[in-house]
Amino acid sequence: MDTASILLEYGYDDETPAWKIAHNAGDFFNLKPDKALKQLMKAFHDYGRSHWRWAPVPSPEAGDGGILFGITPKADAAAFRQALKRLAEIFGIGGIKETAIEHKFLSVPRSPSIDGAWHGNVRSSHAGFADLQCFHFASHSWLTLEDEHYDPCHNRVFKTRNQAVWTRLLPPEDRVLQEANVPASQLYRLARPLASADYLIRTAGKSKNEWTNWQLAARQELKNLRRLG
Q1: Of 71, 96, 176, 218, which cross-links 66 as Cys (Cβ 3.0–4.6 Å)?
Q2: What pairs with residue 173 in β-bridges?
Q3: What is the C-alpha to C-alpha distance for residues 143 and 154, in angstroms, rounded to an integer?
């Protein structure tokens, strides 16, 4: 069966995102599963950058492949992960599993988001959101196939879970928390300190898709940032 026939069999017509993604993925039928998934994930991510919104809380319709039918453009990482898995499996790419990191961390910088209008929610005093393209996560999820990890939210393939993490986020020392005068949920210590920053603090405002904003900072900057927030 060809691409169109398979999609129609599962209810995806030529107006659905699934149809457009699969056709933009090129000829992946004869590729090995890992290469086929990489090619399909790139088309999935490319489509998302122009059409989808990555939200901390998805639309209820996003589950069960709702974004593939075009029912909603709003999804979280789990819904994106599930949609790519569903699309891959109808084309015979088997053995795909779902996995997640369930701790707070910062993502590897300069990883473009599947939401083309959202550049990230982490900045510094020297670099804006669009410069860093870094994301603060309380948790995150993606797919695995054999010995590789596939993250459709960033179109990244990596060998180990740790390659998704720039630095873990740890509770701050009590004295630093007192100095910053913020709730513990709004300040973290970087497990891997940077040359210009040891901490991550929540700042004022939210992005258009309702993610909270954060700033990398040195200890001496925390009080001023809190006043700005």
Answers
A1: 71
A2: none
A3: 12
